[in-house]
Amino acid sequence: MDPYILFNLTPDADDETVKSAYIRATQAYPPDKSPKMFKMIRTAFESISNQRQRLNHQLFEVTPVCPQTIIYACLQKASKERETSSQINKQIFKQGAESAIRHNLESLL
Amino acid sequence: MSKTQKKHISSNAAEDARSFLESGNYKKALSYYKELLKKHPYDENRNALRDCYLGRVKQLSKSNMNREAVVMWENHFPYCASCDHIYFYITLLLATGQKDKAVSVFLRYQSSLTASQVFEMEEIFAALLLAGNDDFAAHFPPESLIRKHLPFIQQALDALVNHNLQQLELALVPISFRSPYRQLKIILKSYSAQQSGKDSDMIKEFLASVPESSPFYNVIKVIKLMSFSLLDLSRSLSSIDEAEFGLLSGCKGWSADQKNFFDKLRKLPEKANIVALSRLMPECLNHLDRETVKRFYYSIIPFYTPCIKSFEKFFGPMQDQEKAHIRARAAAHQSEQLSLEAWSEYEHALSLELQTDDIKLKRALTLRHLFSLIEKTHGPDCGCEKSEESLDMLAKSLELDPLDKETYLKLIYRHQRKGNKKECKKWVDRGLESFPEDRDLLMEGIKMARQHNVLGSALNLTERLLALDPINFFALQNRTELKLEKVKKLVLKRGFEKAEHIIGQLLETIPHHMQWNVQLYHCLSQYIQGRPSELVLFMQRSLKDILAFTRVLLHARQFSLSLEQLERDIPAIKKIKIAIKDSKQLIEFIHVFDEAHFETGKNETIDQLESVIKKAASYPLTVNEFKMVCAFFTKLHRFDFVKVFLKKQSHLKDEPMFIYYHVSTSVEGKKEPLKESEYNLLIDALEEAEIKKDFSTISLINKLLDDKYIYEEERDDDPSLKFNKEDVEAAMEIFSELVEKFGSKNKNKKKGLSELINKVLS
After folding, report:
1. Most buried among B44, B377, B433, B723, by the most CB within 10 A?
2. Cβ separation A109–B128 shorter than 8 A
3. Residues near A10 by Cβ (< 8 Å), separated by ≥ 6?
4. At what angle do helices B219-227 and B182-195 cross, to 10 degrees?
């Protein structure tokens, strides 16, 4: 995954900003609990950890963007404040109740 | 209708009505049973009529006419207390959205429902309550579990959203087994257990106990997705079905545009078709900032250049430098040659730009990238023009960006391998200017200074390294060796006191396991002063091991002491049988010579150990071991020993390296060029080495061929294609016979052909 997208950074981020983003990411995915994710985060960090690496990445990175990266980038931009339980109530349970009613009717008919 | 017809209907009506009812033709059955009931108001007909209405209601419901079904039920079943029908009626009310009525019917007739029906209804009501129908709750008695447990379950859901597992667990405690929320509790508890890393099989079992008919069933997957981080969510979207995706998009509050866009993306495979991706790029601009979309375009364009049009439509025309960069990245998948050319062009395009720091650094990185491409295709030691160019590129990169330690080291190592000491030193010095405290560069500096015999500078650099890294083994070893070098000079000038002082200092400062050399020098110094006893003791300790013995001989040579001299004073030496015990020890034996930084005395020591070495030549060596041995003796110009090993290591006779040494030792010292057979052997070996990517052998063979260039006139690549006149005539004769044989009507062509072939082969 594009390291800038992964860490939600712009390409002009400096070393300190990159490092802070890396630390935040590793706190969310520590190595003992999410080894695969941690490895991905570590690789991404190393590819942009300083200016030289960032330029290297810009010049020589040859992987085309994948759909998951685009989704992730859009999700980051679209993410709202944490949903309240009332929002969950309205959608999930309404549909769940409707589904149960339909199921009951079908079994009775 | 006449009396007779009515009588007739009356007798057949019951049968017809029954058959209509049984066949499901409820409409007709209804009209018959209504008439029958009027005439014969028996329970049998009443029950049958009820069944008709029930069947009709179900028919309407099946046709999605639930409202009509409710009306019919209400008109015709006010007196029916069968629990199945009540349950059905409540379900119909819920299906038509008449929740309030459904609750009041439920509460009135609850006692006539089965326990499972009561639970299923309560669960649906609970789900409707959680769906935000707050006024709906007032219908239930305050002491009912559906109302009592509602606040707890809402607290649990809040805790879920806030990822507060502790709070979640606490909130679920009051939810009992009889609660209508119990299935939801199982799901939330399972989620909490999963987050806490508990046994996943147990969790799966719990979740499996929630039936699909439960109104909370779809919560399972959606809650999981809701609780995912954005990263996990982006990876999971492709695996959920349409209904779940719709539910999730609603919960997440995505707009219709966002939902459509995500839907398109999630349906693409992970390694999506580039054309499909490129088509989505313009749409990305509606959801992302321009810089991000620009970077996405840059990642796609090298794989699908028609995308440039779309890019330029939104971002304006590409600059020459950008185009050159895209071409270079695209060339990476095509061929290495194209890649080299394209990256060179890019570097050239950058050189035409205003030389800001950024541009200079890009040029430097590109030059280094070109170097690695050339090294990959041509090997590090091929000695060809491209390889030389690559070194120039590295040097140029340092002009643009002096702060890259790895580049200095690469240049140093490459020049070391080429034996170019002057260049080596130049890059060590320049590297140390930029990185005065770098350990690797200091170590190279020490090596350089020792190679050039600038011992003062070597000692200076050693002290600098030790200041940074006091336990650095390399530095400690070098300091010891440099100081011992000084001791040697003092001893040879008979400055024994100063020499012993330095020895004393060394013995105090260096670790015990590094004191062997120091003790030896002390013993040699004592020996030269006419006190051989310490040397005798030292030799007695060392003579058990060929490696130690060889070291003693080498160092003794530095004091101009020969083995004969030592044997005179230490007669025990003559009696000792020293041998190299296996191939591993043979390599270690060679390393003893390599470790010694002095050049003198090595050949003499080898001569003294000639029989030992020749015996060891019989040990079967691997290709790498053979290389090391031959390289060592070649460096010392001891081709006699190389020949011994060539003779004894015949199992390696097909190896390119073996062939090289076989030829090089045979032509060594001769002025004549290579013979044709020798040339052919080398060419075959070169081809083999190229297949095996044995770059060191390739380099050696090329150098030998360059040095011993044989032909003055142009020659073919394949000398075997040169025919003489007699060969040509013989061939023409055979071909003429072939034509005659196949031209004629000879029945036994097969026999004729095999005769011809035998003739050719003979």
Report:
1. B377
2. no
3. A4, B291
4. 30
The burial class, CB within 10 Å (0-12 / 13-18 / 19+), for B709 is: exposed
Output the CA–CA distances (angstroms, integers) from residue B420 to B384, B600, B633, in the order listed: 16, 21, 20
Q: What token pair was written down for B574?
A: 């003559």
Distance (Å) of CA B187 to CA B128, B157, B210? 18, 11, 8
Torsion angle, alpha carbons of B569, B573, B575, B578, to 10: -170
The span from the CA of A92 to the CA of B187, in Å, is 13
Indicate which of B64, B228, B234, B363 best probes the interface with A, i.e. most A CBs within 10 Å of its own CB: B234
Q: B536-545 burial by CB neighbour count: b if 16+ within 10 A, else e?
A: bebbeebbee
What 3 state SS string does B69-90 have? HHHHHHHHCCCCCCHHHHHHHH
Distance, CA of A22 to CA of B614 (rounded, Å): 61
Tell me if B183 sits within 8 A of B216, measured CB to CB.
yes
CA-to-CA dists, residue B191 to A36, A100, B127, B222, B230, angstroms: 21, 22, 19, 11, 18
Cα distances (Å, whole numbers) of residue B622 to B583, B599, B650, B655: 9, 28, 11, 11
Nearest to B265 by CA among B238, B239, B295, B244: B238
Give Cβ neighbours of residue B557 (< 8 Å, ≥ 6 apart).
B600, B601, B604, B605
Report how far residue B61's alpha carbon sits from residue A102's, in angstroms, rounded to the nearest whole number: 11
Contacts of B643 (CB under 8 A, 6+ apart): B665
**Euclidean distance between CA atoms B76 and B57, whole angstroms:** 10
pLDDT at B501 over 90: yes
CB within 8 Å of B126: residues ≥ 6 apart: B146, B150, B180, B181, B184, B215
In our burial notation (b when 16+ CB lie closer than 10 A, e otherwise), range B373-383 reads bbbebbbbbbb
Tens digit of each residue's pLDDT (9 = 90 or more) over B510-562: 888 888 889 999 999 999 998 888 888 888 777 777 888 888 889 988 888 88
Among A76, A39, A20, A75, which residue's Cα sits nearest to residue B262? Answer: A75
d(CA A96, CA B572): 99
Interface residue A50 vs chain B (CB under 8 A)? no
Rounded to 10 degrees, what is the CA torsion of B199, B201, B202, B207? 120
A12 touches chain B (CB under 8 A): no
What are B398-435's pLDDT values in tens digits? 999 999 999 999 999 888 888 888 888 899 999 999 99
- Residue whose C-alpha is closest to residue B586's, from B649, B526, B535: B649
B570: left (phi over 0), alpha (psi -120 to 50) or beta: beta
Q: Is the pLDDT of residue B230 over 60?
A: yes
Nearest CB to A74 within list B213, B262, B366: B262
pTM of the model: 0.62
Measured between beta carbons, the chain B residues lying within 8 angstroms of A11 are 291, 295
The amino acid at B663: V
> For residues A60 and B178, is the Cβ–Cβ distance under 8 A?
no
**Among A53, A71, A87, the residue to mutate for chain B (most B Cβ within 10 A):** A71
**Residue B159 is encoded by which pair of tokens?**
């805790």
Residue range B24-42, pLDDT digits in tens: 888 888 888 888 888 888 8
Interacting residues of B456 by C-beta distance below 8 A, sequence separation 6+:
none
- Tell me if B606 sits within 8 A of B638, measured CB to CB: yes
Burial of B691 (0-12, 13-18, 19+ CB in 10 A): exposed
Number of Cβ within 10 Å of residue B739's Cβ equals 9
> Distance between CA atoms of B50 and B343, rounded to whole angstroms?
88
